[in-house]
């Protein structure tokens, strides 16, 4: 790679055509700096020597060498890696979670309208060129949504259409027949229309909020939902523990929103999140009775989600202030860069800023990888569901939840872990293009500048990071195997 | 013999979770057909794949006949009135003249760019280039991937270790990145060179799959038989094992082509792919990205063509996968199932009913046979073609001379 980059052009080109009076001097300086008088093959060993710390050449510049412009690569890399890793991490996490959830649900509703719809969409996303999507997102989502925020009114003609679409989607997801199917459709449509009306009337898009009523509904809903998936609603203790956690969250809502959340910094925020998990775990432990672990786990998950909802509401509280601040000027969805320069504000404002900048590139990255995750998890779960041990589990009289969550899902995750580990490289590769479209100065820009200036050092730094990440994720995949498959743990 | 028993696919293997009725439908459809016929039949049944194939053929025809291919100095020209590199006077502000109702093409159906080049011709030229790169890349990657996978899967041992570590090294680097470095170095020499370079990068996934396939196929009896008959390694690999792995190879090389077109357009977008004065779909988008607000059609058409090609190939790949892989079968509809249940009792011609009965019974017998793996003999099907082959465990070791 080093040699290929070094041979791909002439690093002195810009100086040769320059008209500076001290041209010859500059050429000599750069030659000396980068050892251009040494052949690329030997230069590689000089570079390698620097990496392992025995190099004679560029001491004092950092161990990754310098660029053509005489900047240490280590400094550039530390600036670039932050934003890229943030983007890639967020995008992969969201894509994995969404992909697996949707893949699993399509597998469970095989050959339904929902399944066919998702299959077609994932084929479509799979065939999308990422740079094209990114430009479209920039043009339509960002500019369109920002225009919409100038006068945030959903027209009354649109509400019924959205309601019907939502009704159709829910109808295809929830398997019911005949009248019940119509009922599902009606409920979904009416609820959607109601929410949209409420948003319109309360000017939601200028001052987004969940509010205490929304928090109560979502918390209790989460408590029931998490319990139903994690342990089953029959386990009363788990349900009570989750409800206690939800109640605690609701009780803490006002003190948090208008009290101690002011002046909170990032370490405090993370600490608070961990505290929420720990306290919920403790509540679950106390409620647990004879079977503590599952109950505590359920409570901890509920606690985390409730805390996340409340934090989300807190972020929304500063939305108006953020969107109308002098730096943002009422156009919150950003199309360029990874942060608004010189933005002052609390943790919450900064968080919103990161969110609005991450939104579009993340969507672009997700669309691509999400498609393959959905396909793989669907295929994987279908394969597992046809196994004999699933039939055995059913024959034992286990509930459908236990069969799917404990017997099938866990086994289906094993092949998915492999795919995800291999896919990380692809996501970083996609990020090179995405970063370029959205003007992030991340790893992609580092790589591209290096390549354009025939400068092997930053390019090699890029390869080191991606290679390191690939190894890291393979390691993680191995650990995940061990977690999922006890047979691996034994040997 | 290896001490790892290979996962053996049996022709009459009874799929768990598939009832006898379903099985009988499946069997009735393939009765008396050769493998190729079965695959073709299954492929044409996949409606998405069929439509995709027609659309793709249409795109290929249109791209190559409209502005004519150009290989070096051979430029036959096409039926379209403009060429992709000559600017003409701008009509209608450069907007597309295509209208759907009433359907007319007009002079510039896809519009014109700021200097007046006809975008239809440009996009057709770009499609030609991208298609050509796709095919060359796909072929090269398939050949390399197959050979490396086959050799490392067949010989195992240190050959396998060396080749697979080499593959791993290439896999860890994102394809687009390695392609960018190589493309910058060699892309200037023309689209064909770029295609070859991409082929040299993209083979890794296929090599791993082919290796896996070979690892299991090399333990099968027919390979032993060929070896006993004195066949050389090369003949065993290419004549005996490779045809059995052809499903995996074909399916994945199609999917590889879909990846190739996306990577080529991505590279051209970044500026490391096809270089001016030639063009490709990605390059058109890259050049016209800034003009989006004023001339969005410069941007829409090439994108739509990329999606159309990639989508078609993905659908064809999916159809092929369904056709080659009997495990991913289509679930029979309720109606088919009921018909299959009803068939023996229904007022049908006697011969017909007898056939159905036979098939049902045979399916039943072979199903029990598959369930008795490990027992001697297995199930003897009433029609030879789906009798389960005895596995290695079935067969007592001393009796091996009976082959």
Question: In words, what does this structure look like?
Answer:
The complex is a heterodimer of chains A (491) and B (403). Chain A has helices at residues 2-7, 13-16, 23-34, 40-52, 73-108, 113-126, 130-150, 158-173, 178-201, 211-230, 236-260, 266-287, 292-317, 319-323, 347-385, 388-395, 400-438, 443-452, 456-484, 486-490. With 491 residues, chain A is mainly α. In chain A, α5 packs across α15, α8 (158-173) packs antiparallel against α9 (178-201) and α10 runs antiparallel to α13 (292-317). Mean pLDDT of chain A is 81; it is low at 56-60. By secondary structure, chain B is mostly helical. Chain B is built from 15 helices and no strands. Residues 1-17 and 345-403 of chain B have low confidence and may be disordered. Chain A binds chain B through residues 1, 4-5, 7-9, 110-111, 123-124, 126-132, 135-136, 139, 379, 385-388, 391, 422, 425-426, 428-430, 432-433, 436-437, 447-448, 451, 459, 462-463, 466-467, 470-471, and chain B through 15-18, 171-178, 180-182, 184-185, 258, 262, 265-266, 269-270, 272, 282, 285-286, 289, 292-293, 296, 299, 303, 306-307, 310-311, 314-315, 318, 328, 331.
Give the mean pLDDT of chain B. Answer: 73
Fraction in helix of chain B: 55-70%
- Contiguous runs where pLDDT drops below 50 for at least 5 residues of chain A: 56-60
- What class, by secondary structure content of chain A? mainly alpha
Q: Span between N and C termini of chain B?
A: 16 Å
Approximate shape of chain A: globular
Beta-strand percent range of chain B: under 5%
- List the total number of helices of chain B: 15
What is the terminal separation of chain A in angstroms?
A: 37 Å
Instruction: Name the helix and strand elements of chain A from N-terminus to C-terminus, one letter apiece.
Output: HHHHHHHHHHHHHHHHHHHH
Overall average residue pLDDT of chain A: 81
Low-confidence stretches of chain B: 1-17, 345-403
Biggest sheet layout of chain A? none
Assembly level:
heterodimer
Biggest interface between chains: A-B, 46 and 42 residues
Compute the number of strand runs of chain B.
Answer: 0
- Total beta strand runs of chain A: 0
User: Which structural category do the helix and sheet elements of chain B fall into?
Assistant: mainly alpha
């Amino acid at each position: 790679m080093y040699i290929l980059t070094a041979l791909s052009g002439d690093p002195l080109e810009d100086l040769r055509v320059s008209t500076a009076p001290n041209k010859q001097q500059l050429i000599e300086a750069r030659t000396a700096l980068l050892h251009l008088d040494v052949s690329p093959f030997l230069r590689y060993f000089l570079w390698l020597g620097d990496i392992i710390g025995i190099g004679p050449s560029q001491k004092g510049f950092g161990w990754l060498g310098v660029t053509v412009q005489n900047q240490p690569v280590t400094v550039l890399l530390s600036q670039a890696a932050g934003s890229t890793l943030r983007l890639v991490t967020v995008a992969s996490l969201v894509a994995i979670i969404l992909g697996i959830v949707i893949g699993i649900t399509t597998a469970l509703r095989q050959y339904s309208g929902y399944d066919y719809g998702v299959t077609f969409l994932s084929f479509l996303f799979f065939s999308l060129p990422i740079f094209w999507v990114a430009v479209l997102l920039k043009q339509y989502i960002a500019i369109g949504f920002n225009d919409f925020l100038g006068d945030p009114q959903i027209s009354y003609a649109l509400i019924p259409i959205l309601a019907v679409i939502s009704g159709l989607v829910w109808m295809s997801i929830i398997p019911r027949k005949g009248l019940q199917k119509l009922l599902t459709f009606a409920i979904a449509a009416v609820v959607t229309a109601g929410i949209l009306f409420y948003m319109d009337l309360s000017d939601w898009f200028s001052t987004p909020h969940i509010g205490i009523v929304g928090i109560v509904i979502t918390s209790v809903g989460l408590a029931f939902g998490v319990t139903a998936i994690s342990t089953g609603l029959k386990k009363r203790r788990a349900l009570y523990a989750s409800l206690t956690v939800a109640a605690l969250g609701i009780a803490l809502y006002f003190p948090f929103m208008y009290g101690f959340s002011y002046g909170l910094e990032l370490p405090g925020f993370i600490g608070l999140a961990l505290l929420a998990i720990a306290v919920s775990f403790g509540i679950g432990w106390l409620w647990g009775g004879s079977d503590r672990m599952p109950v505590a786990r359920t409570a901890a998950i509920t606690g985390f989600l409730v805390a996340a909802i409340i934090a989300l509401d807190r972020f929304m509280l500063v939305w108006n202030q953020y969107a109308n601040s002098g730096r943002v000027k009422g156009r919150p969805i950003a199309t360029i860069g990874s942060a608004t320069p010189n933005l002052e504000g609390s943790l919450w404002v900064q968080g919103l800023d990161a969110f609005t900048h991450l939104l579009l590139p993340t969507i672009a990255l997700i669309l691509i990888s999400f498609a393959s995750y959905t396909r793989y998890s669907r295929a994987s779960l279908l394969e597992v569901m046809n196994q004999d041990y699933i039939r055995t589990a059913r024959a034992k009289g286990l509930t459908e939840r236990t069969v799917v969550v404990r017997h099938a899902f866990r086994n289906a995750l094993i092949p998915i872990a492999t795919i995800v580990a291999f896919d990380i490289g692809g996501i970083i590769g996609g990020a090179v293009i995405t970063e370029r479209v959205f003007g992030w100065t991340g790893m992609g820009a580092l790589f591209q500048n290096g390549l354009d200036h025939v400068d092997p050092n930053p390019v090699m730094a890029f390869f080191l990071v991606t290679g390191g990440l690939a190894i890291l994720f393979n390691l993680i995949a191995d650990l995940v195997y061990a977690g999922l498959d006890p047979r691996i743990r034994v040997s | 013999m290896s001490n790892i028993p290979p996962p053996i696919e049996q022709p009459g293997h009874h799929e768990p979770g598939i009832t006898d009725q379903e099985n009988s439908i499946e069997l009735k459809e393939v009765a008396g057909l050769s493998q190729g016929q079965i695959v073709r039949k299954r492929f044409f049944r996949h409606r998405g794949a069929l439509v995709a194939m027609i659309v793709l053929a249409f795109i290929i025809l249109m791209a190559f006949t409209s502005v004519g291919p150009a290989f070096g100095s051979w430029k036959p020209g096409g039926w379209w009135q403009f060429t992709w590199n000559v600017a003409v006077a701008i009509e209608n502000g450069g907007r597309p003249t295509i209208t759907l109702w009433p359907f007319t093409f007009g002079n510039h159906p896809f519009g014109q760019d700021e200097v007046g080049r006809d975008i239809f011709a440009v996009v057709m030229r770009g499609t030609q280039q991208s298609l050509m790169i796709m095919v060359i890349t796909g072929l090269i990657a398939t050949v390399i991937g197959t050979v490396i996978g086959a050799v490392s899967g067949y010989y195992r041992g240190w050959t396998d270790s060396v080749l697979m570590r080499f593959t791993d090294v290439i896999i860890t680097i994102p394809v687009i990145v390695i392609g960018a470095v190589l493309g910058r170095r060699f892309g200037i020499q023309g689209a064909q060179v770029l295609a070859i370079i991409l082929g040299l990068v993209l083979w890794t996934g296929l090599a791993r799959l082919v290796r896996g396939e070979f690892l299991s196929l090399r333990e099968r009896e027919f390979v032993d038989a060929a070896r006993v008959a004195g066949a050389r390694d090369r003949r065993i690999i290419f004549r005996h094992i490779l045809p059995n792995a052809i499903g995996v190879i074909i399916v994945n090389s199609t999917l590889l082509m879909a990846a190739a077109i996306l990577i080529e357009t991505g590279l051209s977008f970044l500026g490391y792919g096809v270089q001016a004065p030639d063009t490709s779909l990605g390059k058109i988008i890259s050049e016209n990205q800034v003009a989006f607000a004023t001339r969005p059609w410069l941007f829409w058409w090439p994108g739509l063509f990329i999606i159309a090609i990639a989508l078609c190939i993905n659908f064809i790949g999916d159809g092929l996968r369904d056709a080659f892989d009997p495990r991913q079968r289509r679930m029979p509809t309720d109606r088919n199932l009921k018909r299959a249940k009803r068939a023996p009792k229904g007022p049908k011609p006697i011969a017909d009913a007898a056939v159905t009965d036979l098939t049902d019974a045979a399916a039943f017998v072979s199903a029990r046979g598959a369930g008795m793996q490990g027992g001697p003999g297995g199930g003897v099907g009433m029609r030879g073609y789906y009798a389960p082959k005895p596995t290695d465990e079935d067969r007592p070791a001393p009796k091996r001379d009976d082959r």
